[in-house]
């Protein structure tokens, strides 16, 4: 009589509330807050950019409640992949939506990692100014493409991340944690330095008509919110590890909501402190190019000199590398999990025979990230957020209001207050970001191409299986 197959090993629930909070904060604080201040100031035309961070925090809090509720109701590995599969029907639309989520990750995750690589290269060029000169500049589907020394540095960062991750996970775990601590300490130091040299007349030097609610204001607000959503991104990281969290009904909501409140406070204080030292008008126009590229280095240089600025550049470069490591480490597991579930090409389910890591998923995401390094930071951020809004945030916001989940709400777990108002506000906020951009059709076109390609692959796979 043949022996029954041994059960597959289950994930160990070993992540505590404090560790979960740390994972989220480290995921949120990458290179973003160190490079995007000028982007929001230019988009909104002055220090009223603070409104973008505050509203971005409010939007993230509303969406965070969606993640917290779904995370406690379905505490499984994969996060959104599991939520969409459960709530839209595992044998119906849920299988398609979860496949499309894993599919878009092959594009959005490299964009996210490329933003860290580009930010890394941008700050490294502080030491090698000639690397910022482009030797090729063209367009692809209306999107600017630039090849320069910075592009090569960004690609080198990808290869470095792959080299480090292509070994036992245990060897890099402590490195990522220490880098995360260094990032938070860097934020705190910048804030302290700014407020000890603070000039309120600079920080609150609003231009005439700064809060005039005309079309230009809302276009600027939409652009500012898009960058803010990028900066706050990562408050849901622990949800991808739902199968490894202790007491998920308590841990996940505390980690999600707590990380948003912590990072919102740090971001607003840090950026206000910088605006109290560097006049915002210096970030505008061609003359402000240096300030825009190295805003935090310029800030520290004015206060403590060139040597201190150089140290700050190295810390920010480390922060960028930390975010690249963390993203490639965690997000490579999603196409791997989908492939193991039978809902993604089997090629992604391959494990390295020695290190037991999803080698094909790592190589695929790393290769796509190399390609994404040829784009400018602005286009990378905007395309990333638009794709995630369409394939992730909106689908989840709707899913939490479906009848199937309403039945689940009767059970124990975190329940968003004033249900379903936070979900509706999150959906409205994300739609506003989409339609307020004057050239939003460009990013939507990219998302449509990803959708059509993904749906085609899904239909071919279903036909073969039938």
UniProtKB/TrEMBL annotation:
Its main location: membrane. InterPro entries: AA/rel_permease1, APC_superfamily. Keywords: Cell membrane, Membrane, Transmembrane, Transmembrane helix. GO terms for cellular component: plasma membrane. The chain crosses the membrane at residues 21-44, 100-125, 145-166, 178-198, 218-243, 255-278, 303-329, 414-436, 442-460. The keyword ATP-binding does not apply. Pfam families: AA_permease_2. GO terms for molecular function: transmembrane transporter activity. This is Amino acid/polyamine/organocation transporter, APC superfamily. It comes from Bryocella elongata. The lineage of its organism: Bacteria, Pseudomonadati, Acidobacteriota, Terriglobia, Terriglobales.
């Amino acid at each position: 009589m043949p022996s029954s197959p041994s059960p597959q090993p289950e994930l160990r629930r070993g992540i505590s509330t404090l560790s979960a909070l740390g994972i989220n904060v480290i995921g949120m604080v990458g290179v973003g807050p160190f490079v995007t201040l000028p982007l929001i100031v230019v988009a909104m035309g002055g220090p009223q950019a603070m409104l973008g961070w505050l509203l971005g925090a409010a939007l993230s809090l509303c969406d965070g409640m969606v993640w917290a509720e779904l995370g406690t109701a379905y505490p499984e590995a994969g996060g959104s992949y599991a939520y969409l599969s459960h709530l839209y029907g595992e044998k119906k639309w849920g299988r398609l939506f979860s496949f499309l989520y894993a599919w878009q990750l092959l594009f959005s995750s490299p964009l996210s990692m490329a933003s860290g690589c580009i930010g890394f290269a941008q700050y490294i060029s502080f030491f090698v100014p000639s690397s910022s000169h482009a030797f090729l500049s063209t367009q692809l589907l209306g999107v600017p493409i630039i090849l320069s020394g910075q592009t090569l540095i960004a690609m080198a960062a990808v290869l470095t991340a792959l080299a480090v991750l292509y070994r036992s996970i245990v060897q890099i775990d402590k490195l990522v944690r220490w880098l995360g601590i260094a990032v938070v300490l860097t934020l705190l130091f910048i804030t302290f330095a700014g407020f000890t040299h603070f000039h309120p007349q600079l920080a609150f030097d609003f231009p005439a008509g700064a809060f005039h609610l005309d079309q230009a204001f809302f276009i600027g607000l939409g652009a500012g919110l898009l960058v803010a959503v990028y900066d706050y991104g990562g408050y849901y990281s622990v949800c991808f590890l739902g199968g490894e969290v202790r007491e998920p009904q308590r841990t996940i909501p505390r980690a999600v909501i707590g990380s948003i409140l912590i990072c919102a406070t740090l971001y607003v204080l840090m950026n206000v402190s910088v605006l109290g030292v560097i006049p915002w008008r210096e970030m505008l126009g061609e003359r402000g190019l240096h300030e825009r590229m190295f805003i935090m280095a310029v800030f520290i240089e004015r206060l403590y000199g060139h040597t201190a600025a150089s140290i700050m550049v190295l810390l920010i470069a480390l922060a960028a590398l930390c975010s690249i490591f963390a993203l490639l480490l965690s997000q490579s597991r999603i196409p791997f999990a989908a492939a193991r579930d039978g809902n993604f090409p089997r090629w992604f389910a391959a494990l390295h025979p020695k290190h037991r890591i999803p080698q094909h998923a790592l190589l695929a995401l790393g290769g796509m990230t190399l390609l994404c390094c040829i784009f400018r930071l602005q286009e990378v951020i905007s395309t990333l957020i638009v794709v995630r809004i369409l394939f992730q945030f909106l689908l989840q916001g709707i899913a939490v209001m479906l009848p199937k989940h309403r039945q689940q709400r009767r059970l124990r777990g975190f329940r968003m207050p004033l249900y379903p108002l936070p979900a509706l506000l999150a959906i409205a906020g994300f739609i506003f970001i989409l339609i307020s951009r004057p050239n939003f059709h460009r990013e939507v076109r990219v998302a449509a191409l990803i959708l059509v390609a993904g749906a085609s692959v899904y239909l071919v796979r279903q036909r073969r299986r039938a």
